[in-house]
Amino acid sequence: KNIAIFASGAGSNAQKIIDHFRGSSLAKVTLILSNKAEAGIFKIAEREQIPAILIDKEQFFRGDTYIKLLEEAKTDLVVLAGFLWKVPANLVTAFPNRIINIHPALLPKFGGKGMYGHFVHEAVLAAGEKESGITIHYVNEKYDDGGVILQEKCIITEEDTPESLARKVQVLEHKWFPLIVERLLTQ
Ligand code: GRF
């Protein structure tokens, strides 16, 4: 099975997924795509010798170029691992229930455009939440809106800061995302 990963940042989730399938006969990450030339994800791709593509914005939002590219790469599952753009509807339609995303909060709260990175954790803390966590969900044409696949929670304490909460959430991301990818590919 072929996994394509879209990422915009450091790529730590992408790295965990690559590690999880190392030497596996079930699946492997065969393509990495990013909208940020300077993102850490390109260093990961280089080190792991995985083809990496810098996304062209106009073409991405038109969709067809990347649909063709993903189909030619025989992609079975598209994984958004810290990808900040909304996926165009035609790309969603081309891969029904085969595009998933991870969000560092318990959707439907604290989701949507602009809710990423430390902004999420700041909002969760400002709202006085007693817990946060991750949401892994199918992607549809809206931000952070598709069917939920898994939610895992962490407790928030008085001492938590956006940074400490981010670390708690990242532990959950790194533990669960690879497992969900594997579960979806063995169904
Ligand atoms: C994570 O917080 C993830 O939940 C969100 O974007 C971030 C990606 O981090 N979608 P990384 O680039 O995988 O380290």
UniProtKB/TrEMBL annotation:
Keyword Methyltransferase part of the UniProt annotation: no
Amino-acid positions noted as binding (6R)-10-formyltetrahydrofolate in the UniProt annotation, renumbered to this chain: 57, 101
InterPro entries to which the protein is assigned, alphabetical: Formyl_transf_N (IPR002376), Formyl_transf_N_sf (IPR036477), GART (IPR004607), GART_AS (IPR001555)
Residue ranges constituting the Formyl transferase N-terminal domain according to the UniProt record: 1-179
Marked site positions, Raises pKa of active site His: 144
Transmembrane residue ranges: none
The keyword Transferase belongs to this UniProt entry's keyword annotation: yes
Catalytic function, reaction form: N(1)-(5-phospho-beta-D-ribosyl)glycinamide + (6R)-10-formyltetrahydrofolate = N(2)-formyl-N(1)-(5-phospho-beta-D-ribosyl)glycinamide + (6S)-5,6,7,8-tetrahydrofolate + H(+)
One Gene Ontology cellular component: cytosol
EC number(s) reported in the record: 2.1.2.2
Annotated binding of N(1)-(5-phospho-beta-D-ribosyl)glycinamide, by residue: 11-13
Keywords: Purine biosynthesis, Transferase
Pathway assigned in UniProt: Purine metabolism; IMP biosynthesis via de novo pathway; N(2)-formyl-N(1)-(5-phospho-D-ribosyl)glycinamide from N(1)-(5-phospho-D-ribosyl)glycinamide (10-formyl THF route): step 1/1
Pfam families per UniProt: Formyl_trans_N
Active-site residues annotated for this sequence: 103
Any one of the GO BP annotations: 'de novo' IMP biosynthetic process
Main EC class the enzyme belongs to: transferase
PROSITE patterns associated with the record: GART (PS00373)
GO molecular function (one): phosphoribosylglycinamide formyltransferase activity
Protein family according to the UniProt entry: Belongs to the GART family.
UniProt cross-references to PANTHER family, sorted A to Z: PHOSPHORIBOSYLGLYCINAMIDE FORMYLTRANSFERASE
NCBIfam families assigned to the protein according to its UniProt record, in alphabetical order: PurN (TIGR00639)
Function: Catalyzes the transfer of a formyl group from 10-formyltetrahydrofolate to 5-phospho-ribosyl-glycinamide (GAR), producing 5-phospho-ribosyl-N-formylglycinamide (FGAR) and tetrahydrofolate.
Protein name as annotated: Phosphoribosylglycinamide formyltransferase
